[in-house]
Design brief:
This protein is α+β, with helices and mostly antiparallel strands. The chain has two domains: 1-41; 42-183, PCu(A)C copper chaperone (Immunoglobulin-like, Sandwich). It has helices spanning 2-22, 29-40, 44-48; strands at 49-57, 62-72, 78-84, 90-99, 102-107, 112-114, 119-122, 128-134, 143-150, 155-163. Strands 1, 2, 3, 4, 5, 6, 7, 8, 9 and 10 form a ten-stranded mixed beta sheet that branches. A hairpin with a 4-residue loop joins strand 1 and strand 2 (62-72). Helix 1 packs antiparallel against helix 2.
């Protein structure tokens, strides 16, 4: 089933890119064809991006988060500006910051910047990919697909494995402090 979800995501992205390019009016039909072809191919930024140890915290419903280490194997910084997953209708890039003496979560303005030839860690209590309105239970070992959108329009797809994690008792509720009380 997972491979069908990835295939569907890739197919929809390719069709959307081709449809968008096909709607552009141009005097030179060969340049339109070149634009359509390049839209279906991965960008240099997405080809340079990888992730190590991707995992998602198990949950029965509601909210959860995904983690791992984003690795940029190129000579230019790569910025992740948004994300999506078939598991959730709303995915946000979050950070944990101190506010009024408490650690609170909030959307990360500007996204995740992965430096040239560097990495960016997504971890509990730090930057993470937040899923809200999770549509089905995430059990240990479940495979959950994600697509990250990069600055400039490229995408990067990966699969995260469901993992139980008690950790620091994170409460993935926006506007909540990390102890679970209102922030």
């Amino acid at each position: 089933m997972f491979s069908r979800v990835i295939l569907a995501v890739v197919s929809v992205a390719a069709l959307a890119g081709t449809a968008a390019c096909g709607s552009q009016e141009t005097a030179d039909p060969t340049s339109s064809q070149a634009a359509a072809t390049s839209a279906a191919e991965p960008s240099a930024a997405s080809a340079a991006l990888t992730i190590t140890d991707p995992w998602i915290k198990t949950t029965k419903k509601g909210m959860t988060a995904a983690f791992g280490t984003l690795v940029n194997n190129s000579g230019k910084a790569v910025t992740v500006v948004s994300g999506s997953s078939p598991l959730s209708p709303k995915v946000e890039l979050h950070e944990v910051v101190e506010s009024k003496g408490k650690m609170v979560m909030q959307p990360k303005k500007g996204g995740f910047v992965i430096p040239a030839n560097g990495s960016h860690v997504l971890k509990p209590g730090g930057d993470h990919i937040m899923l809200m309105g999770v549509t089905e239970e995430v059990k240990p070992g479940a495979e959950v697909s994600f697509t990250l959108v990069l600055d400039g329009g490229g995408t990067f797809a990966f699969t995260a494995m469901g993992k139980d994690f008690a950790g620091a008792k994170e409460n993935y509720q926006p506007g909540m402090d990390m102890s679970g009380s209102d922030g």
